[in-house]
Amino acid sequence: MAITTEDLKNLLVSPGHIKEEDFEKILERTEKVNQIKKILVEEGYISEENLGTIIADAIGYPFVDLRKVKIPREMVEIVPEVVAKSQMAIVFEKTPGEVLKLATTDPENYEFIGMLEKKTEKQIKSHYAPPSAIEASFKLYGEDLEAEINKLSESFKEDVKEREESVVKMVDLFLEHASASLASDIHIEPLSDKVMVRYRIDGVLYKVADYSKNIHPKVVSRIKILSQLRTDEHAAPQDGRFSFEKKDVSFDARVSIMPVTEGENVVIRILVEEGQRLSLEDLGLSEDNLKKVKRASSKSYGMILAVGPTGSGKTTSLYGILQFLNNIRVNIMTIEDPVEYNIDGVQQTQTNPQKELTFSTGLRSIVRQDPDVIMVGEIRDSETADIAINSAMTGHLVLSTMHTNDAATTFPRLLEMGVEPFLIASSINVIVAQRLVRRICEKCRKSTFLNEKEVAFIEEDKELSQSIRRIAGKDNLFEIRFYHGEGCQACSKTGFSGRSAIFEVLEVNESIRLLIAQKASSEEIKRKAMEEGMASLLHDGVSKALIGETSILEVVKAAKST
User: What predicted TM-score, i.e. pTM, was given to this entire model?
Assistant: First the structure.
């Protein structure tokens, strides 16, 4: 169980370990449990060992005093540094029976412990250790990323062989560290006086290191070699991919290199591993929306479109549907740009404009391969739209993406591409519009009520205020409970950990088909769909904010973006 402030007070005051007035004095300074523990020890109210033993006994786990334990290097490396810091945990011993002993501030962090048991294929025995002791043990990892980069930069001044080895180590270090940090992208950006390295974690960019500009051409060259790109080309964009494998780290990466005023800008996308891919049930669809998508996916013909801006998770949703459909009796083929994840049992093709293999030409060839299900990476021109819709009407289930603001605006967009209204009406089964929002950290999530400034902001938006009142079932906005993340070690003080999606699923029924055939506006189509039960992006987002999955500000930023 997690120790609350009240629990800690009962554990220390009732047995007489400290005076109640002393505890109340500390409580006036902070209500955070870990901070209270730190003050108690630092100001001499109780020793760290005694405090740790009391808490460990209360939660039913053994206490370990890490100051008296010599932790072998091979134990430290079992948990990557970034993960250890986020989970406040470190492996400190292995028993003769191959059981790993874990020191942690949260011995009941079952999700992390289960992951560690799966990774190590060993039983984990949890021990309680105070936060300060866990933090002190992190020095065993050695230098942080920036210090290591600085050291490698210094060795670049040595002979040619040293330079080459330093560059290889530097690129490997970026890749390993980014993977351990659960980053989705690495940005290597040349500035006027240096090169900045940033990671995108949960949709937000964080600076992690700098290095000297004189090293940058060598770093870019190394990445080009890994990606099998031209090392002598510096004036044109290049795209590639590679597989990285070192120690316990392995993943596929997609590379984009773009010439900019200060040199060449590099972005490396770390592609998710097989075991981390989301199934259809894991996407975050509401029960009603999930039924709509499954109903459309179970048809042998027609089209399913995922729509939204770049980076809204459209491809992830389509892969979730592909996994739902993938079985030995179905022939699934794709044409993608690029192929992001390999799926066993699915024949995937990457576009190659140099070989005249585009979405439209690839789609023409795919329909001759006797497919049951076809996925087209994106419909971005009239030719691809025509072939995709004709395929959907001739016995194929077609999946694709488009860039539109919401589900209803997809129909006018297809009309602009020259597709006949009756073809659109008869071919599309469902449209899934989506956005990504940051998920509130479960470790530090707290309930909260809106203040006057926040209520005034919400009242300015009639649609937003009405949605909140309707879904919450209360008229007074001040009485509606929301949630926020206070910021902790697990989320690097951001209050958020991971991302979730909000959805708008428009199922095309007879009344919607009639409006499409009549070239009705997107506003009319959306109004009709909502009358018949469609939940808007805003509605889905507010619902998730009210149960603490995300914050209301995240929902407003996502659902109101165009």
Answer: 0.64
Helices vs. strands in the chain: H and E counts, helices first: 23, 18
Q: How far apart are the first and last CA of the chain?
A: 43
The answer to whether residues 248 and 361 belong to one domain is: no
324 and 261 in a single domain? The answer is no
Find, among 60, 59, 31, 64, the residue nearest to 48 by Cα.
64
* β-sheet bridge partners, residue 446: 484
CA pair distance 190, 210, nearest whole angstrom? 10
Candidate ranges 235-239, 265-269, 365-369, 498-502; pick with highest mean pLDDT = 265-269
Asked if 355 and 392 sit in the same domain, the reply is: yes
Rounded-to-integer distance, Cα 24 and Cα 36, Å: 10
Residue 106: give the domain boundaries.
5-141
For the chain, the domain total comes to 3
pLDDT of residue 542: 95
Q: Which one of 226, 249, 271 terminates a domain?
A: 271
Quick: pLDDT tens for 163-215: 788 888 899 989 988 887 778 899 999 999 999 999 887 777 888 888 989 89
Choose one of 109, 141, 173: the last residue of a domain. 141
CATH number at 468 reads 3.40.50.300
Rounded Cα gap, residues 246 and 180, in angstroms: 12
Q: Which residues contact 377 (CB under 8 A, 6 or more apart)?
A: 315, 334, 335, 336, 337, 351, 359, 400, 401
Cβ pair 383, 342 in contact under 8 A: no
Question: Where residue 84 sits, what CATH number does that domain have?
Answer: 3.30.300.160
Closest among 258, 219, 267, 220 to 237, alpha carbons compared: 258
Residue 106 confidence (pLDDT): 86
In the numeric block, which tokens belong to residue 206? 């964080």
CB 294 within 8 A of CB 421: no
Q: Tokens at residue 493, please?
A: 């003080």
Do 37 and 129 sit in the same domain of this protein?
yes
Task: Assign residue 266 the CATH number of its domain.
Answer: 3.30.450.90
Contact yes or no for 324/297 (Cβ under 8 A): yes
User: What is the pLDDT confidence band of residue 85, given thresholds at 50, 70 and 90?
Assistant: confident
**pLDDT at residue number 274:** 46
**What is the layout of strands, in order, in the sheet containing 332-336?**
346-350, 332-336, 373-376, 397-402, 302-307, 428-440, 496-507
Average pLDDT value for residue range 282-308: 93
Kindly report the average pLDDT of the chain as a whole number: 87
H/E stretch holding 484 reads strand 481-485
Residue 275 pLDDT > 50, yes or no? no
CB atoms within 10 A of CB 10: 13
Q: Check whether 220 has a pLDDT greater than 70.
A: yes
Tokens of 360: 């439209």
- Same-domain pairing of 344 and 383: yes
- Residue 134 three-state SS: helix
